[in-house]
């Protein structure tokens, strides 16, 4: 089962009151309904969603749709439920036109219906973070986008092929949207994966930083060794004061140690507290002397 199906099944199985169920149905009808001769045609593939909408029509609207079940056998067997709903009195049209854009509870239930009609969400454990709802009609996409904006979400819309996609890519906002859908179990699964991925990414970033620091340290060590060996081989060590010469000698003895490592070794061997900044200060002095010598030789 895909994560999308898991979320939609949880919405379909959630305990909603009559008003919430009616608004959910209106969201589905608005998104996926086709009107032909005062009849609304709905095509559904998810059995749990089909059962949810059937019960809503029967117990909330007291309407029993004509149901046709078709079976497709391409690659695997799939059943399609087709609902034919008589609306000669215009009941559903009236309810769709009376949606209150200032009633957040009504809008939340409406969006649940929109999502089970056309929504999809990537499994966070298998792919990148992405949630979208597809619309063949731009006006419908913009209407749903305005509702989502009213609810405080930052969805965007793009055209992909012939359809218009209203989508989210932020992991935190997708998590918040799952809260709106009321899919608690799916939300827990999503958050567990998100926390694990964020932790893994943090560890990887720390490892990368550590590796970069190590490479930088080794590059610095190589440059320092080059300068010290030049000064030593050409009898310029006398230009260094006693403390700087001592740091230079310890660099020769411990060529791969970091500044902190050298500071710790010096602290033990000379029985005096030496800091990382102390070591850094004397390496800067070595660099300055080296530069002065090189410039004098160029004249």
What is the strand and helix layout of this fold?
Blueprint: H1 3-13, H2 18-32, E1 34-36, E2 39-44, H3 47-60, E3 66-72, E4 78-86, H4 91-97, H5 104-118, E5 119-121, E6 131-135, H6 138-150, E7 156-160, E8 163-168, H7 171-181, H8 184-233, H9 242-253, H10 259-269, H11 276-298
Antiparallel strand pairs: 1-2, 2-4, 3-4, 5-6, 6-8, 7-8
Helix pairs in contact: 1-3, 2-3, 2-5, 5-6, 7-8, 8-9, 8-11, 9-11, 10-11
Task: Provide structural commentary.
With 299 residues, this protein is α+β, with helices and mostly antiparallel strands. It folds into 2 domains: 3-182, Endonuclease I-creI (Roll), CATH 3.10.28; 214-298. The chain is 61% helix and 15% strand. The protein has helices at 3-13, 18-32, 47-60, 91-97, 104-118, 138-150, 171-181, 184-233, 242-253, 259-269, 276-298; strands at residues 34-36, 39-44, 66-72, 78-86, 119-121, 131-135, 156-160, 163-168. Strands 1-2-4-3 form a 4-stranded antiparallel β-sheet. Strands 5-6-8-7 form a 4-stranded antiparallel β-sheet. Helix 7 runs antiparallel to helix 8 and helix 8 crosses helix 11. The N and C termini lie far apart (78 Å). The mean pLDDT is 87.
Strands of the biggest beta sheet: in what spatial order? 1-2-4-3
Basic shape: rod-shaped
Number of domains: 2
| Count of distinct strands | 8
Offer a quick outline of the entry.
The protein is an alpha+beta fold and 299 residues long.
Keywords summarizing the entry:
299 residues; alpha+beta; Endonuclease I-creI; 2 domains; four-stranded antiparallel sheet; 8 strands; 61% helix
């Amino acid at each position: 089962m895909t994560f999308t199906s898991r979320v939609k099944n949880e919405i379909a199985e959630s305990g909603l009151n009559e008003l919430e169920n009616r608004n959910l149905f209106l969201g589905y009808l608005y998104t996926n309904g086709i009107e032909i001769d005062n009849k609304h045609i709905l095509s559904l593939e998810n059995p749990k969603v089909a059962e949810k909408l059937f019960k809503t029509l029967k117990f909330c609207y007291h309407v029993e749709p004509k149901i046709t079940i078709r079976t497709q056998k391409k690659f695997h067997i799939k059943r399609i439920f087709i609902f034919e709903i008589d609306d000669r009195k215009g009941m559903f049209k009236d309810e769709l036109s009376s949606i209150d854009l200032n009633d957040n509870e009504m809008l939340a239930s409406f969006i649940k219906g929109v999502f089970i009609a056309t929504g999809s969400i990537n499994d966070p454990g298998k792919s990148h973070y992405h949630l979208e709802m597809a619309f063949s009609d731009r006006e419908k996409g913009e209407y749903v986008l305005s509702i989502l904006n009213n609810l405080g979400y930052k969805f965007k819309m793009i055209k992909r092929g012939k359809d218009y996609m209203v989508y989210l890519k932020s992991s935190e906002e997708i998590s918040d949207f799952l809260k709106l859908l009321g899919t608690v179990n799916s939300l827990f699964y999503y958050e567990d994966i998100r926390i694990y991925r964020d932790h893994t990414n943090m560890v990887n970033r720390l490892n990368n930083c550590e590796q970069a620091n190590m490479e930088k340290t080794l590059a610095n060590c190589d440059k320092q060794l080059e300068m010290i060996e030049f000064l030593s081989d050409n009898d310029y060590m006398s230009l260094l004061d006693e403390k700087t010469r001592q740091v230079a000698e310890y660099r020769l003895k411990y060529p791969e140690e970091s500044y902190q490592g050298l500071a710790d070794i010096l602290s033990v061997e000379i029985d005096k507290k030496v800091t990382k900044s102390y070591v850094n200060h004397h390496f800067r002095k070595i660099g300055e002397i080296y530069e002065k010598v090189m410039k004098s030789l160029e004249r």
